Amino acid sequence: MDIGIPRESRQHEHRVALTPAGVKALIERGHRVYIETGAGAEAGHADADFESAGATVVYSRQEAFHRAELVLAVMAPLPVEYELLQPQQALVAFWALPAARVEDLRTLIARQVTAVGLEVAGDAEGHAPALIAMSEIAGPLAVVIGAGLLLNEFGGKGILLSGAPGVPPANLVIIGAGVLGRAAACAAVGIGAEVLLLDVSVPQLRAVRERLPRQVPTMLATAHGIERALSFADLVISAPALRGERAPVCVSRAMLRRMKPRSVVMDLAIDMGGSLETSRPTYFPDPTYEAEGILHFCVPNLPSIVARSATTALTNTVLPWVLELAEKGADRTLRENEALRRGTYLHHGKVLRQPLAELFGLPFQPLGAGE
Fold first, then answer.
1. Residue 26 belongs to what domain range?
2. What's the Cα-to-Cα distance from 279 to each of 127, 242, 307, rounded to whole Å?
3. Could you tell me the CATH number of the domain that includes residue 239?
4. pTM, whole model, 2 decimals?
5. Considering 247, 267, 297, which residue would you say is the last residue of a domain?
6. Pairing of strands 235-238, 218-220
7. Considering the chain, what percentage of its residues have pLDDT values greater than 90?
C-alpha cells in the first residue's frame, strides 16, 4: 500500500505521525511510504533518517497526499486543506470532529474519505490507546508547567507547588480522574503538592485512590463540589472528557469569581472544545491570559512540546493498527477490527459514530462487522 505522511500544518504542532523505526516496519512488510520533507525535523528526525528507513522523501504537500491510499498524521488536516483529500482515501489522525464546524464536516462527507480518530479508537470500556499514551505525557507536563505558572515571574501568586520545610504546599485541584488526571495526580503527589481529585464517577475515584502512591482526597464533580474545590485552589487542572464527544463545560465564569486572585487554571480539554466557560485556545510563546482575575492556560496538543517523546509513544501505540490497515485495506480492517471501527467518524460518506451524527443532526449509518 502507498502511505503518505505529511508535515504537520497546525500551529505549534511539532510531532510527526511515525518515527523512522515505525516507517521501517512498514517498508519491511512491502509497503511504500512517502513523507513530506521536514515532517520529522522538530521531533528530532531528519529526512535522511526516514530515507535510511526506506521511505521516499517528497517535496510538496500535494504529493504526500496524492500518492497515498492511507494518510498518517498527528492532527487532521485543516479545513482549508480538505481539497487535498481524495475519495476512498483513509486518514488516521486526531480529528476531534465534535469540535468542528458543521460545514467542514459536510465537506469531509462529500469527499468520501475514511476518517479514523485516534482520540476515540479503542475498546468498548472507553480505553483509547493513542489518547491514553498522549494523556500519560500531558498529565505530568501540566504539573510541571502549572508549577511554573504559580511563580511571580509568570503571573502567579508566588507559591511553590511542593512547599518547603515550614512552608505549606500549594493546593492543586484536578477535575477529571481519567488517564490525564491520574497521571497529573501521580506527578503532583510525587513532588509533595496537596491534591484534590474530582470526577463524576465514584468507581473511577475509587480506582484512582488504589493506584496512587499515597491516598489523595476525592470529591464528586457536582457543580457544588467543583465550586467548593475552586474556592481554595491555587492551581486547577481541568481534564474532563467524554471520548469522541465535546468536552463538558464544568467551570462557569461565576465559579471563577469565587477563586483566590492570581490562581491558575489549565484547561486541558481545550482540544475538544474546552471545559471552562472562559476558555479559548492559547499558544506558546504567549500561552496565558487573564479572565476574572484568574490566569488561564489553554494550550491544545500539549504533548507536542515534547515532540520526540510524544512521537515515540504515538508510534508504539498506532503502528499495529497502521500495519493492519496497510495489509488489509480500510474496508476489510473496519469490518474485522472493532477498535478501529469504533474510532471511525466517517467512511465513504457515512457518519459511523452516533454521538457525532446526533450532535450535527446528520444520519447515523453504522458499519456492521459483517458488512
1. 2-126+306-360
2. 26, 18, 24
3. 3.40.50.720
4. 0.89
5. 297
6. unpaired
7. 85
Residue 333, C-alpha cell as written in the block: 480492517
Answer for the pair 284, 305: CB distance below 8 angstroms, yes or no. yes
Buried residues in 123-141 as b, exposed as e (16+ CB within 10 A): eeeeebbbbbbbbbbbbbb
Please state, in angstroms and rounded to a whole number, the distance separating the CA atoms of residues 197 and 219.
6
**What pLDDT digit, counting tens, does each position of 343-359 carry?**
999 999 999 998 899 98
In 3-state terms, the chain is what percent helix, strand and coil (to 5)? Answer: 40, 20, 40
- Mean of pLDDT values over 23-29: 98
CA 364 – CA 354 distance, rounded (Å): 6
Q: Report the pLDDT value the prediction gives residue 370, as an integer from 0 to 100.
A: 44
Same-domain pairing of 177 and 325:
no
Assess whether 250 and 156 both reside in one domain.
Answer: yes
> In terms of C-beta density within 10 A (0-12 exposed, 13-18 middle, 19 or more buried), how is residue 242 classed?
middle
Q: Are residues 289 and 354 in the same domain?
A: no
Look at the alpha carbons of 300, 330, 325, 36 in this order and tell me if their dihedral is positive or negative: negative
Strands 288-291 and 294-297, how do they pair? antiparallel
**Cα(239)–Cα(179) distance, rounded to whole angstroms?**
9
Q: Could you report the per-residue pLDDT of 113-156, keeping only the tens digit for each?
A: 999 999 999 987 778 999 999 999 999 999 999 999 999 999 99
Task: Give the per-residue pLDDT at 197.
Answer: 96
